[in-house]
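User: Predict the complex with uridine-5'-diphosphate.
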Amino acid sequence: MKIVTVIGARPQIIKASALSRKIQNKFSDKIEEIIVHTGQHYDENMSQVFFSELQIPKEKYNLGVGSLSHGKQTAKMIEGIEDILQKEQPEALVIYGDTNSTLAGAIAASKIHIPVVHIEAGLRSFDKRMPEEINRITADNVSTLLFCPTKAGYDNLMHEGFAETITNRPDFNNPNVYLCGDIMLDNTLYFSKQTYQQSTPYNKTNDNYILCTIHRNSNTDDKQRLSNIFTSIVEIAKYKKIILPLHPRTKKMMPQMLSANLLKQINENPNIQIIPPASYLEMICLENNSQMIITDSGGVQKEAYFLQKPCIILRPQTEWVEIVEHKMAITADADINKITDAFTQFLNMPKKNTEEFCKQRETLFGNGNTSEFICQTIIETLG
Ligand code: UD1
Ligand code: UDP
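Assistant: Here is the predicted structure with uridine-5'-diphosphate placed in the model:
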């Protein structure tokens, strides 16, 4: 069968690599995958680096859409994807997560009756001011196969009226919803074996540092929130080194949003190391060797949990409620007191027994072989 995979933003390229690897290694006689890159992310270190490093087959089409307003960006993507679908006539379209590229794929395919496969379905922040929440809800509602990484995601869909029943031939009006584990864990387990305890140009093995990432628009585009976050980082840097791979959005917004004085405290701080966006292997290595992670990224907070690192989430809520419930993460929002209190709390937290932790991780996120289940299910129901 022929499938078209739509990717565009950094986390999607990474997630899609797990499925592409599985198709190449196990299902190449059954699935032909055509990759469409929308061009939402385009810098070498936000896109191409992952293709080379994770051995993803080169995209057949690149729409080169680039950075635009939500409406313009999504519209250009829909137009381009529709043309490709008309030409390729695949049996299914595969989308990941909750970006504008996800939404565009979902709309383009469903309108011309090509079944949509949504990987990372069912997640909700219950905050419709997040662009990602609109994208997720819409994508889920036009999908035929919905793969939920967590029980919370599955339950959200059931509460929204999706049916538990699984049918042999699902369609637009009778979608199948599966609870199948998290495809990101496939990658973390696969690649952390290769990178464990190695160093990157930015850290040495057993370095004592905190890894931090910031890119959520609700933080970068709000003066008060971004100032609070960086004031907290400057405070924490009095005690620990901080490594911060900087997302291009944050790099662009920092000079506009932060005072000259705060910028000086950040840029001249020997304990704050700002680096370009890391490659995936560098990132896994930086996560693996860190003492704690501070982030507003959905993927990075999850990887923190996968690698048993405590995580301070720079958001008021999270879709990954399990990691907060299991006390491995704290939603500290952009509140200076909450962030610094969480830092102190985690510094003194004893580490759980590894075997016990791995059991818990499997219950919450699966066993790292989610891509195989997804491939098999696509073949059986849509092939
Ligand atoms: C997007 C996703 C977000 C995801 C994130 C992952 C949407 C609505 N948002 O946010 O859910 O968490 O990707 O990283 O789809 N830029 C560059 N070079 C690039 C890419 C972006 O300089 O290669 C800069 C541009 O100034 C651009 C800004 O970053 O305007 C934001 O990029 P965009 O793709 O619109 O949103 P992200 O914040 O990256
Ligand atoms: N990531 C990376 N380099 C970085 C920051 C993140 O490779 O400098 C990886 C990270 O390991 C995870 C994914 O990108 O797999 C998360 O993407 P991002 O934080 O951009 O978006 P989100 O998950 O919030 O949508």
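The chain has a mean pLDDT of 96.
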